[in-house]
Amino acid sequence: MKYAESDYLAYDPFEGDEADIKCRTVKLVKVRKEHQCFMGAAPFGDKHTIARGDTARFEKALVDGDFWGKSYVCIPCMDKWLDDVIGEGTEE
């Protein structure tokens, strides 16, 4: 990973959303099955997936008191996003 684990957890790609978020959990996981990358699924995304066994940022939260939202973001997408937010990281 290009950045420290704490950076992947601390910096929120959804920051600024106006939703009411409760019961939020964020962690890095090794995915057990293929998942759509949230950033890849966005209208501007390339529709890529996260392969089984890869590490991803997983977030789960109760959104607006109505539904449980879950998202997986692959590490390469997080790296690009963190490059823009905090600058180039250091190799670990």
Tell me briefly what this model is.
The protein has 92 residues and is α+β, with helices and mostly antiparallel strands.
Task: Describe the model.
- By secondary structure, the chain is α+β, with helices and mostly antiparallel strands.
- The chain has 3 helices and 5 strands, in the order H-E-E-H-E-E-E-H.
- A 3-stranded antiparallel β-sheet has the order 1-4-5. A two-stranded antiparallel ribbon has the order 2-3.
- Strand 4 and strand 5 form a beta hairpin.
- The chain is globular, with a radius of gyration of 13 Å.
- The N and C termini lie close together (6 Å).
- Main sheet attributes: strand count, strand direction, barrel closure: 3 strands, antiparallel
Helical fraction: 10-25%
Order of helices and strands: HEEHEEEH
Please mark out the parts with pLDDT under 50 across 5 or more consecutive residues, or reply none: none
Roughly what fraction of the amino acids lie in strands?
Answer: 25-35%
Overall structural class, as computed from helix and strand content, comes to alpha+beta
- Averaged pLDDT: 88
Number of alpha- plus pi-helical segments: 3
Strand order of the largest sheet: 1-4-5
Silhouette: globular
Number of beta strands: 5
CA-CA gap between termini: 6 Å
- How large is the radius of gyration? 13 Å
Which structural traits does this protein have?
single chain; alpha+beta; 5 strands
Any chance you could write out the topology, listing elements then pairs?
Elements: H1 5-10, E1 21-30, E2 35-36, H2 38-41, E3 49-50, E4 55-63, E5 67-74, H3 75-86
Antiparallel strand pairs: 1-4, 2-3, 4-5
